[in-house]
Amino acid sequence: MVALIMLEMRTIKISLIFWFPLKRKTCLDLELIEFIKAIILDMFAAGSDTTSTALERAMTELLRRPEIMHKLKTEIRSIAGSKTFITEDDLEAMVYLKAVIKETVRLHPPLPFLVPRASRTKVEIDGYEIKQGYQVYINAWAIGRDPISWEIPEEFEPDRFLRSVVDYKAMISG
Ligand code: HEM
To answer: Is the same domain home to 42 and 95?
Structure first.
């Protein structure tokens, strides 16, 4: 996968080199190209290291817990079976796989402090005053291991996400 990503990056770099001389006419074009380059770089930077770190951690946890590995393999084989290609619908049905990924990211967030943010205005959160322009780090690592929020937080237990209404997207109510 990493090789594929690198190949993709090389292709994009080459296409941009070819594209550049054609677009060098006005300032606006240059700005636009810089903008596109920044977006592409962002996507690769944000999507490659995070994904490979999460995969590495997931495989490590699965090797340490063969019974979970077995349950996951059983689910994947029952859905993917002998298919050559799997689809988005197949992925949707792999609920245990999703739970394994969520549990991996809970215990080993690839970005433990997320991405630094700065407050636009003065705000108060949970009694703490954050002044305008202050940089804020969210300790996702600590949130994922908080014993008030999680049962046996240090254990790799994907099943907790099968029982839970809490998701990374939102908290489901009603
Ligand atoms: C396990 C995999 C991943 C993890 C743990 C992860 C984590 C994160 C985190 C913590 C943020 C910052 C959110 C915030 O502070 O608001 C973020 C933003 C972002 N991620 Fe990911 N990410 C993953 C995969 C990906 C992939 C595969 C892509 C693209 C192909 C991607 C693209 C982005 C982009 C573009 C942003 C910036 C969004 C914005 O600021 O509007 N991420 N990601």
So the answer is: no
128 strand-pairing partners: 125
Q: How many structural domains does the chain have?
A: 2
CA of 117, closest atom in ligand 1: 15
Q: Is the pLDDT of residue 90 over 70?
A: yes
Largest CA distance in the chain: 62
Residue 37: which residues within 8 A CB-CB, separation 6 or more? 16
Domain span holding position 38: 1-61
Mutation probe of ligand 1 site: the residue of 5, 50, 55, 119 with most atoms within 8 A of C-beta? 50
Residue type for position 9: M
Cα within 13 Å of Cα(174), Cβ side: 0
- If asked whether residues 161 and 97 sit together in one domain, one would say yes
pTM: 0.79
pLDDT tens-digit series, residues 133-156? 999 999 999 999 999 999 999 999
Query: Residue 47: CB within 6 Å of ligand 1?
Result: yes
Residue type (1 letter), 10: R
**What is the model's pLDDT at position 172?**
52
Q: Does 126 map to a domain?
A: yes
Neighbours of 75 (CB within 10 A): 17
